[in-house]
């Protein structure tokens, strides 16, 4: 039961990939929130699959921009009886990156974020990810020689702008988005006075 006179808060879920899509199938993660009185919005942003190549290609060079814009737009468009002033953005992997990236923008309409197996530094992600996947990161962000661009899209380099609460969820054995920098980011945010919490299980990898 919620508090008397208050509307349900909102969880805005960003899918991973980032070139995947939200599912309309039964989802126990969604049930976790809704059975506790939290409304859930699942975002398919420009770049999500299932809508044709032209829609997917809208993410080229725009990762870290159009995904955030779509999340904000969906939140603004809500007509349900929910409390959009108590909205949290979250996701895993690419979705965790979008959530963490959103928190670096001081005009964010979200009250906080849940960053699961998230990406803090896109430069390191491209360096650590070889072959096709490494090249795909550059396709989605832009020319890697444009260091200023990559830093502007990386939460690690914009962490001084973060003021709102963040919950970090990350497996210690994650070989896709290593946990070390997220731990360091959490410590630095704590020292900045940002409300942070974390769960870093030793026996988990990229997602729980």
What is the H-and-E element order? Answer: EHEHHEHEHHHEHE
Coarse morphology: globular
Strand order of the largest sheet: 2-1-3-4-5-6
**Largest sheet composition:** 6 strands, parallel
Distance between the termini: 28 Å
Protein structure class: alpha/beta
Provide a count of the helices.
Answer: 8
Helical proportion, percent range = 25-40%
Total strand segments: 6
The residue-averaged pLDDT reads 92
Q: Could you list the spans in which at least 5 consecutive residues all have pLDDT below 50?
A: none
What value does the Rg take, in angstroms? Answer: 17 Å
Strand content: 5-15%
Q: Topology of this structure?
A:
Elements: E1 10-14, H1 28-34, E2 39-43, H2 53-56, H3 66-77, E3 87-92, H4 94-102, E4 112-116, H5 122-128, H6 131-141, H7 147-152, E5 166-169, H8 179-191, E6 196-199
Parallel strand pairs: 1-2, 1-3, 3-4, 4-5, 5-6
Helix pairs in contact: 5-6
């Amino acid at each position: 039961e919620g508090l008397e006179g208050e509307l349900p808060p909102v969880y805005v879920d960003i899918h991973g990939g980032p070139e995947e899509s939200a599912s309309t199938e039964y989802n126990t993660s969604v049930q976790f929130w809704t059975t506790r009185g939290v409304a859930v919005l699942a975002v398919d942003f420009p770049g999500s699959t299932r809508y044709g190549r032209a829609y997917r290609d809208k993410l080229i060079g725009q990762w870290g921009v159009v995904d955030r814009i779509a999340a904000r737009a969906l939140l603004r468009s809500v007509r349900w009886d929910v409390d959009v002033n108590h909205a949290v953005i979250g996701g895993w992997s690419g979705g965790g990156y979008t959530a963490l990236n959103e928190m670096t923008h001081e005009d964010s309409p979200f009250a906080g974020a849940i960053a699961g197996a998230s990406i803090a530094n896109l430069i390191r992600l491209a360096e650590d990810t070889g072959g096709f996947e490494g090249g795909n990161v550059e396709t989605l962000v832009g020319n890697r020689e444009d260091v200023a661009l990559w830093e502007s899209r990386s939460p690690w380099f914009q962490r001084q702008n973060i003021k709102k609460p963040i919950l970090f969820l990350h497996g210690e054995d994650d070989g896709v988005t290593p946990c070390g920098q997220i731990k360091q980011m959490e410590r630095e945010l704590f020292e900045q006075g940002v409300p942070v919490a974390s769960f870093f299980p030793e026996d988990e990898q990229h997602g729980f």
